[in-house]
Amino acid sequence: MTLLNIHIPLRVKIDGFVKLKVQDAIGDMYPVYTGEVEIEPKTVEQSIETANTTVLNDIRVLKIPYFETTNLHGTTAIIGGNG
Fold first, then answer.
1. Rg, the chain, Cα only
2. Which residues pair with 70 in a beta bridge?
3. Is the pTM of this model over 0.85?
4. 74, β-bridge pairs
5. In which element (H, E) is residue 53 found?
6. Is the sign of the CA dihedral 25, 31, 37, 43 positive or negative?
7. For the CA atoms of 12, 17, 50, 3, what is the dihedral angle to 10 degrees?
8. Dihedral angle at the C-alpha atoms of 40, 45, 50, 55, nearest 10 degrees?
9. CA nearest 64: which of 36, 37, 35, 43?
10. Three-state SS at 54
11. Residue 33 in contact with residue 54, Cβ under 8 Å?
C-alpha cells in the first residue's frame, strides 16, 4: 500500500462549535486532534495524546536552550537554563 499526503485548501466560516472527523480507507472515523501543537521539552517523559485522532498540523518540539560561557578554566556549557 502506498500512502499519499494530500493537502486540500479548506475555508470554513464557523458560527458556533464544529467537530471534524476524518474517515480512513477502512471506514474508521477519527476526530481531529485539537491539543497543543507546540511542546516544550521537559526533564520528565511526556506524551502527546494523538492516538486515534487525525493530526492536521505539525507538532513542534521546541529546542532545549543551550548556552556557552568562557571563564578562567575554559568553557562552561549551560543546557536547559538561562544564558
1. 21
2. 75
3. no
4. 71
5. none
6. negative
7. -30
8. 30
9. 43
10. strand
11. yes
